[in-house]
Fold Putative gluconeogenesis factor.
Amino acid sequence: MRIVALGGGHGLYATLTAMRYLSPDVTAVVTVADDGGSSGRLRAELGVIPPGDLRMALSALMSAPAALAARSDGPTPHGPSAHELWASIFQHRFGGRGALAGHPIGNLLLAGLTEVTGDPVAALDELVAVFDIDGRVLPMSAVPLDIEADVSGLESDPRISRCIRGQVAVATTPGKVRRVRLLPNDPPATPEALQAIRSADLVVLGPGSWFSSVIPHVLVPEQLAALRETNGRRVLFVNLAPEPGETTGFSVERHLHVLHAHADVLRVDDIVVDAASVPAGRERDHLIRAAELFGARLHAGDLAIPGRHVHDPEKVATLVKQLCEGELSRYAVRAQES
């Protein structure tokens, strides 16, 4: 099964880990608007696309349990496998107080290879080949992007919105994000990502930071068109809980309405939520109708790691497998059937 997962950061890491239980043919399409930390520094100093989320996607594909179990260099009683070791090395951050402090090794490798090859896609493909990683990691765009947001609640008059710029500023704002845009507003999509989406058997969007990792994927016109054109099954995962800053106070239903407001032509086949986050009853009924905005069926399942607002990759993989095999149809309810 050819799987494409769209997102960024920790949300995409969890999704990729889950999808690797289902197939070795997994392509990650990653947002490129990060302007904080090591990624922001390398972006400003070298003009490269921010490497942090790309590094995390590479590490996820390299260290996914199913991937390790299938390899001849799997874990031994004497220590981690080569893939586990290198996944950890990719994530290791330099200490100290000098120029390298805070930079993960994987970020520097990606930035250096991009300078040498002149192409971030070639740099990522080279790392995939060198470290024998199943799957592929692609940037959403080959140029660094910026996020701009209209935010209310920052002025004395709550009716007034202020425009703020930058992914970190949007993610940490004490106000309420109303709408986001990408700069440039018609960014070029990565051709390889478009091809992967169009030829996929399964396309997964979310979970993740809603305004900075999920919604940006539908703000690239060519990529939105590819999502509409693909014959693959399109599955949207909604966050288990609102995130402080970006989506404080958001219900699960509100997440869907905000996504629809940014891309009302987006169509998906299945929307998946954690059952505990949306109890059966009136709230679930409203969510079913919100799913209908995308032409989708709603599925509620046990998806969380107990006691944490984090998706359990094995539970997610099991649910997606059941979806693809048609075993969940009896749990799906369309609005007109409720």
Notes: Residues 297 and 333 are 6 Å apart (CA to CA).
